[in-house]
Amino acid sequence: MENKNYLENELGKVSDSIKNVKLSDNTKKILSGACDNDFIDKDKFPNNSYWLAYNKASKMINWAELSRTLAGDRSSITNERIPQKHVAKIHELRKSITEWILSNDPQFNK
């Protein structure tokens, strides 16, 4: 599919200034997902290790049980859908699990 058609099909009417933006090869590679499994040097990018641990913490949570405990329904809260009144509690939980992972997981301790 031609680049112009893709933009107009996915985004609706797009201004010419957006259509004419040229992306670098590296940016195209990143946006295509080709770099998703690349090694991240934790010494060069210390914040990345925090976010990797944060994502791992999210995967460790039993979302159905958490939803049942907080909202009374197993499907009210999911990893992608968190009601506003529970955001602070769940962020604190994720943050605590992340800190625990960073201090105990050998992958993050070098």
Q: From the alpha-carbon coordinates, what is the Rg to the nearest angstrom?
A: 20 Å
The tally of beta strands, per DSSP, is 0
H/I helix tally: 6
* Assembly state: single chain
Specify the overall morphology: flat
User: pLDDT below 50 for ≥5 consecutive residues: which ranges?
Assistant: none
Mean pLDDT: 79
Order of helices and strands: HHHHHH
Whole-Å distance between the termini?
A: 46 Å
Described by strand count, sense and barrel closure, the largest sheet is: none
Q: What can you tell me about this protein's structure?
A:
The mean pLDDT is 79. The protein starts with a helix and ends in a 6-residue tail after the last helix. It folds into 2 domains: 30 residues, no CATH class; 59 residues. The chain contains 6 helices and no strands. With 110 residues, the chain is mainly α.
